[in-house]
TrEMBL record:
The keyword Disulfide bond does not apply. This is Transmembrane protein. Residues 181-201 are annotated as: Disordered. Residues 191-201 have a biased composition (Acidic residues). Keywords: Membrane, Transmembrane, Transmembrane helix. It comes from Mycobacteroides franklinii. The chain crosses the membrane at residues 38-56, 85-104, 111-130, 142-160.
Length: 201
């Protein structure tokens, strides 16, 4: 094999290696993104409904916004800690991270939205229970609190479906990349052995 042919093969190998790196980078980028499809519209509607609950009665005359900012009306209605925690979690994860995940399509943000919505669902149940057992003279859960709780439960369900489908695709892609890397390694070793045999001849 002449030096010119060897140099040409090295150049082709370098071009292929650079092309392979670009492909790997693109695969990693795609693996870190979500494609919610039709669920994106459902999640957007749920986020909008969740936002509306902040202007609806949370309990008595206190609206969700009053509970969020710890207003005087919330104190008058004896709003307890679980309700305050719930409205903050619903705003941060149900609205904030859900919108971020939809806009950026980042898989990690959808995971955070899922985890936060799940915790919000549990705290929301506790908030409703505390309003139902608030005692005589204190109002029970308002329509805003109930709708908000249902909305975060539905958000948890839909984000779980999105995350799970993305996880399955990622696992399949990683397995395919590992198998491709093994094939490339075998072919590279085979080529190296063939070159050694050609030189020996």
């Amino acid at each position: 094999m002449s030096d010119s042919e060897s140099g040409k093969e090295d150049a082709e190998f370098d071009e292929f290696a650079a092309f392979q790196k670009d492909i790997d980078a693109a695969e990693k980028k795609v693996a870190g993104e979500i494609d919610p499809g039709a669920r994106a519209m459902v999640v957007a509607v749920l986020v909008f409904a969740l936002l509306l609950t902040f202007v609806l009665p949370h309990t008595g005359h206190a609206r969700g916004f009053d509970v969020l900012v710890n207003g005087a009306i919330a104190d008058q209605e004896s709003v307890r800690v679980p309700s305050r925690i719930f409205v903050w979690l619903a705003m941060i994860f149900g609205v904030g991270f859900s919108m971020l995940a939809l806009l950026t399509r980042r898989w990690v943000l959808s995971w955070i939205a899922l985890a936060g919505s799940f915790v919000s669902s549990v705290i929301g149940m506790l908030a409703i229970w505390t309003r139902q057992t608030a005692g005589t003279g204190h109002p029970g859960p308002g329509i805003g609190l109930v709708i908000a709780w249902i909305a975060v439960i539905l958000l948890t369900f839909h984000w779980a479906r999105v995350v799970w489908s993305r996880t399955a695709v990622q696992l399949a892609a990683e397995q395919e990349r590992r198998e491709a890397a093994k094939r490339d390694q075998r072919s590279f070793l085979d080529d190296a052995f063939e070159d050694d045999e050609d030189r020996d001849k």
